[in-house]
Write a structure and sequence with these properties.
By secondary structure, the protein is of the alpha+beta class. It has a domain of 66 residues: 2-Layer Sandwich (Alpha-Beta Plaits). It is built from four helices and three strands, in the order H-E-H-E-H-E-H. It has a three-stranded antiparallel sheet. The protein starts with 13 loop residues before the first helix and ends in a 16-residue tail after the last helix. The relative contact order is 0.19.
Length: 111
Amino acid sequence: MGLFGFHRRKKKKLKDVWPKREDGTEVPPAFLTHTGGTPMDEQILLTMLEAYGIPAVTQYPNDGSFGKVILGVAGGGVDVFVPETMLEDARALLTAEADESPHEEADGGAV
């Protein structure tokens, strides 16, 4: 169990990447979304947030960590939380459209 009672499976310690207020206390987590799919859905979302510098924590709302430990999958899905100061940026990432179509080359030209 980590900061605020949430889970995080990353190499960096949560306390090192979670933003702090001017008084040194941690910014509270804010609910971003619920993923009810596969563990891959959770990992894709967490990796995308991390790539944009937004730390995230997860919580298993229904069966707690028990289903994850016993079954290997959280049957009730996963709630994802981010720092409340980064919530709008995280929401924008979730609703953003891809910038490039799959038929464009890296230099921006069409195939």
